[in-house]
Amino acid sequence: xxxxxxxxxxxxxxxxxxxQCPAKKWTVGYxxxxxxxxxxxxxxxxxxxNGFTAEFAEKLLKxxxxxxxxxxxxxxxxxxLNDVRRAVVVDMIYQLGIGGFKKFKKMQERLSAGDxxxxxxxxxxxxxxxxxxxxxxxxxxxxxxxxxQEVK
Length: 152
What we know:
By secondary structure, the chain is mainly α. The chain has 9 helices and 3 strands. Strand 2 (26-29) and strand 3 form a beta hairpin. The longest helix is centred in the middle third of the chain and has 20 residues, at 54-73. The two termini are 21 Å apart. The model has no long low-confidence stretch (mean pLDDT 95).
């Protein structure tokens, strides 16, 4: 999980101030889409008490990655993937949400068949790929090759 968290931090960057992501959703911290995910009463209390800190953003990130891992583990093909390809799936779920990830139907069919090059082609042939820059390029290469790639 730590490697996934470090990758997400690299891709998302950190912002203490809210901003709109490319999907026009209000976001803060390490890409935390609070417009869709919201904050619990305990979260709001912590923010009001201490401000929105890097430590709090890290807490949100870890909590979200744990949820993304659970969502990924429920996918029928996930257990057959190596750690690198699992990281790609979890990162995509973090970025797109499980609903957005599930729209990649052809990619999922390829993953179920063990066709990782085909899955990578399906990823590259998407609006997500065009919008996500180095993140999508790195994830496509990792999916295809099954090896960790340097984040460029």
